[in-house]
Amino acid sequence: MLKKGRLKLPDSLGSLVSGFDDKEMKNGGPGTVLEPGEELEIMEPNGTEFSHKENEYGFDDLVNDTDLDKEGAFRTRKRPEKDWKGQVSVMEVIAADEKRSDIEYELSQKEINLEKVRRISSMGLPDGGGLRATAWKLQKLLLGYLSPSHDLWEKELTENRQKYGKLKEELLLSPSEYTRVKEDAMISAELSGERDDAGPLKRQGISHGDHPLSIVKASAWHHYFKHTEIAEQIDRDLLRTHPDLKFFSGESSFSKKNREAMRSILLLFAKLNPAIRYVQGMNEVLAPIFYVFSTDTDVKNAVNAEADSFFCFVRLLSDSVDHFCQQLDNSPVGILSTLSRLAELLKENDEELWKHLEFTTKVKPQFYAFRWITLLLTQEFNFQSILRIWDSLLSNPFGIQDMLLRICCAMLLCMKSRLLSGDFAANLRLLQHYPDINIEHLLRVAQDLSADTSSYSLSLTMEPVLLHGTLHVTIYEACRVFGSGCSKFCCQILENIDKTVGFGKGFCKLYAGIYLEETRVGRTRLLEHPHSDPQWFESFHIYCAHIASNVIFSVKEDNPIEAIVIGKAYLPVSELLDGKEVDKWLEILHKTHRPLHKGSKIHVRVQFFDATKRHYWSKGIGSPKFPGVPYTFFSQRSGCRVTLYQDAHVPDKFVPEIPLAGGNHHEQHRCWEDIFDAIINAKHLIYITGWSVYTKITLVRDPARQKPGGDMILGELLKKKANEGVRVLMLVWDDRTSVKLLKKDGLMATHDEDTGSYFHNTKVHCVLCPRNPDDGKSIIQDIEISTIFTHHQKTLVVDSELPGGEQPKRRIVSFIGGIDLCDGRYDTPFHPIFRTLDTVHHNDFRQPNFAGASIHKGGPREPWHDVHCRLEGPIAWDVLVNFEQRWRKQGKEDLLLQPRELDGILTPPSPVMLPEDHETWNVQLFRSIDGGAAFGFPEAPEDAARVGLVSGNDNVIDRSIQDAYINAIRRAKKFIYIENQYFLGSSFSWKSNDVKVEEVGALHLIPKELSLKIVSKIKSGERFSVYVVIPMWPEGIPESGSVQAILNWQKRTMEMMYSDIAEALRDKGLEANPKDYLTFFCLGKQEREMLGEYVPSERPARNSDYSRAQKSRRFMIYVHAKLMIVDDEYIITGSANINQRSMDGGRDTEIAMGAYQPYHLATKQPARGQIHGFRMSLWYEHLGQLDDIFCHPESLECVRKVNHIAEKYWHLYSSDILDNDLPGHLLTYPMEVASNGDLAELQGTEFFPDTKARVFGSKSDLLPSILTT
Fold it and tell me: Where is the PLD phosphodiesterase domain (predicted)?
């Protein structure tokens, strides 16, 4: 008969699985002992009791008092024995072969596609061949024990296996065994002659504290005996591990060896994690891992299965270790919370069954699902089914726990009819003795379930809104955040391993990123060993133009290959729109939008400033006292002089008179002539930076303007000045693709090796400097930066005489811009392509757009349009500072002239223009550069922020060029004129279904800022115009993959902008062409043949782009300028392109200046200073004419006139009929803009003239976007 009384349950969940609770039976043996193949039954945590009365549910028929132990409700049953193999159909064999082929292919790739591996794994991995072992090691939830990079596997495995061997030596040997090992090592060293000390061997003494009988708690023997008890419990449990499998069970040497390996793993885990130690059931979780790795067909992997299993076991357990911790039972991450989520999942998918179990029969998840969850279903099915289930568990992109709960819920649903007809006793017995089931069917049911909608799901229903303005963000600290995406135990145990064996720099190196949806806009520095409460206290000034629902703070763990996301915190944008400061702790969530850990939070302060509500929005410079762009490294300088240059040379009387304010007229200046004069007149220093410097060019070529020494090549000119005692220092980009020994120029043809060799053993100090990454970059980033990115600055700093020339002291003068001192750059506003091939361009022929082009095969040469400037006054010294910072970082010797040497030579930085002089300039220097290229950047984020630098990724960046563009666009009142070599960016706003825009990475804001400026003007009923001049295509073979990819990014950028404008026009009810507000142009040259022209000795290949262009006598003018003019009052020019490479700050190094004339602002009337004159001169060059309407570029009349001229010129250029030279150079970019903003090719213009290159390019699946953006 049954005992009439209530069933007494254990006091805690921990006691159900703990294997070392120190409770002994009266006979001296251990507590309740389970027979092999038996398992736990009827469990309820924390001392709660069944709420029903005795016999209410026929409980007498279920439990016999002889089966109950007074310490807990343990009842045992044999694990079901099922036939693993059975009969399989031909179709199943074929499907298995296809699956094997698929996974073998994916695992053989140099870079493993984890998504594909997960997808294949989720459908079940084939047995044999080691495929399951490799795939399991790869799965993200094993936290990348193998990285996706196949080339790193050998190194990673070797390091981890060495760590494990040292761990066993340090922690598993008894003190006497450890001493003996050390002695043997000493004897071996002695015999091999490696010891230096003479005399007999000295036996290592054992101190009194380390004696086996010592009672000192710090004694090694004390700790050894303490863990012996745990080892005994592990041994008992291992004997009960899958007794039906000879791999684990029996007395064979094979099974004993396997149990010994598992014993070492579990004992090491316990020693390294004293807070949890070993818990009964961990042996069951380890078993599948060890079995799969031990049966790997790769002998080396199988031999090392113990080490690999240990590390993967640690990582696997990180996702569920909280379930083994009694103290966390009632926490959000404890077992009760997980059981509650299972109930919620069942309710979501079948409320009828949920109510029946929860209320009718009162079969709570605690009674059956505790074992399912804690032991990952290893007690419910046969071993082969367990392996299949684990394929799905480990491959689930949302984590093991997500898939585990789905399977548990599916187990209930698959038994629905039996459960609905059963009472408490029947249902409890059914769920604790789960019957045979088709595993594939079970997993399909699990996969098809509705998502977990537990109380921790995040509501993301807020409509995204435009966040256009500035975010001031401070990330203070986080609490209870642990690395490896796991819990504190995993982080600590990995650190314990590292400390024990002395490898590496530790684990859990954390940082926080700031995201607007998928776009990262800021990140903190990396914190090493932050434990669970990292503190950053970093502030960020972030320009934004993004559509977002949330500001997301992502906490990540650094990784040499790819960072691991630990969790994310969400701040709804709606809380920021009123402009008030938000200072709060945000809960950090798992990717399933449930809290990551109990109390895991991040403390942030955020304030949003709407750009359109700022006092400077559309106000222009506004006042002569405008202080410049804020938050930059260099302050604005006053009292300066700026000289603007179009092209390398301008002939006399090129442009008609352009009237300026005060009765003045625009003056033409000649760039390379002025550079020649600056070098020839230097007395003390000549400092040059260049993407390319070519020694064989001459700077003075105009027969009407010859100068003494003007025929000297640049190399000889610089050597001459160095021999005169002038300090000549050069920093030339080292193109890593150029090979000196093979006489190869490199992909960019920069002549860097030739230039370095030319100045070798001379007094000119030329350093070829690669684009080195900053400290703290990942392995991948190191490779990217050093091989893909460049030093792109083009600067010249010289000493010059003071005005008047009578004083002994001298001053600093600097040149910056887009023109390198190299071949192919000398040109005039006429841009000849055939007529100068026997004169100024005979020895300077450049045509990189055709394969095999040369002067011997004739034109067209590639004409070159560019912009440069000379800076005088305090701003010139800032350019000097830039050079000195770069030289100190990458110069080979400290050859810079020191301040004490300059004191008696140079006047200190001082104005060169009086405040009342109406031609004075205010100028500010901007850069894209990081600590890898510039010396002296502050390391501390707070110090970096104070000097206008951005910190992140242990990298300090000057990103002020992009900031300057954004600031100028937001201030713009009426129009913007841009010339640039590239125009692509704001990829976060691209509308595209065939590319993942978040992976493109062209994140700078300039295109989006331009379109938003136009949109704001349309909404307010004001006119605004943007003119953009770009090359027909980027320099290079136009059909090549890289050129086509860039054209494709450019098309997406344009389409995004036109879509914004079209939408604004629709909202306003206006029927207008988007090109009335934004229009793109390119430049072209077409020359008719003249008598006496150069006749080449060879001809291009028939039917080539080269031959067709030669026949049609036309070619694009390559736009290399980097210029933006705003309202004719503000100008930015320098070396930076409008792409991510130039604007990022951590990619290409760049330099630029922003300037205005305080007496020539567009306040009450249009600005008519030198900036206006320079724009009008450029327009004359491009259009071949001047018109009064060009003085009002914002007007619809002006836009339409310029568009009309450009369309006419394109028609002439693209025509096969050539009667005369093209009257101007400005061509409409060959595309049509639909009313909705979509772009289409001009009719009959799928390809650029004379080529087979598509105008809109094509997406490249081979080239990484980081190369082409």
Answer: 787-825, 1115-1142
Give me the phi and psi of 630, to 5 degrees please. -75, 165
- Measuring CA to CA, which residue among 1011, 1019, 1127, 1018 is closest to residue 1078? 1011
Give which of 242, 313, 240 is closest to 278, Cα–Cα: 313
pLDDT by residue (tens digit) across 55-81?
332 323 333 333 323 233 223 334 444
Cα–Cα distance between 814 and 801 in angstroms, integer? 13
Is the distance from CB of 1215 to CB of 1005 less than 8 angstroms? no
Report the DSSP pairing between strands 975-980 and 1025-1029: parallel
Residue type, 240: R
- C-alpha 710/C-alpha 137 separation (Å) is 68
Rounded distance between C-alpha atoms, residue 241 and residue 247, angstroms? 10
Query: Cis before residue 860, ω within 30 degrees of 0?
Result: yes
Question: How far apart are alpha carbons 1176 and 287 in whole angstroms?
Answer: 79
Please state which CATH class domain 326-453 belongs to: mainly alpha
Query: Per the structure block, which two tokens stand in for 1252?
Result: 């087979």
pLDDT digits (tens, 9 = 90+) for 173-194: 655 554 555 455 544 544 444 4
Residues 877, 879, 884: CA angle, nearest 5 degrees: 90
**Closest to 1053 (Cα-Cα) out of 1071, 1026, 1073:** 1026
Q: Give the alpha-carbon dihedral of 968, 972, 975, 980, to 10 degrees.
A: 10
Whole-angstrom distance, CA of residue 636 vs CA of residue 964 = 12
Residue 979 is predicted with a pLDDT of 98
Q: Are 1167 and 1160 in contact (CB under 8 A)?
A: yes
Strand-pairing partners, residue 1241, are 1231
Q: Given a cut of 50, is residue 150 above it in pLDDT?
A: yes
Per-residue DSSP letters for 858-905? ------EE-EEEEEESHHHHHHHHHHHHHHHHH-SS--SPPHHHHTTT
- By annotation, the residues acting in catalysis are 792, 794, 799, 1120, 1122, 1127
- Supply the DSSP string of 95-130, one letter for each residue: HHHHHHHHHHHHHHSSB--HHHHHHHHHT-PPSSTT
Structure tokens at 174: 């008894």
Asked whether this chain's domains 326-453 and 465-484+506-613 adopt the same fold, the reply is no
Q: What pLDDT band is residue 969 in, cutting at 50, 70 and 90?
A: very high
DSSP character at residue 594: S
Task: Kindly list the distances between the CA atom of residue 217 and the CA atoms of 222, 223, 231, 751, 838, in Å, as whole numbers in the listed order.
Answer: 6, 7, 19, 71, 94
Of 69-73, 550-554, 562-566, 640-644, the one with minimum mean pLDDT is 69-73
Q: Which tokens hold the place of 1180? A: 């004359």
Please give the distance of CA 910 from its chain centroid, rounded to a whole number. 42
Number of H helices, E strands in the chain: 36, 30
Q: How far apart are CA 836 and CA 424, in angstroms?
A: 99
* Backbone torsions φ then ψ of 836, nearest 5 degrees: -110, 15
**Domain regions of the chain by residue span:** 326-453, 465-484+506-613, 982-1086+1168-1267
What letter represents residue 183's amino acid?
E
Reference 987, options 520, 657, 606; nearest CA is 520
Positive or negative, the CA dihedral 437, 443, 446, 448 is: negative
Domain 465-484+506-613: which topology? Immunoglobulin-like (2.60.40)
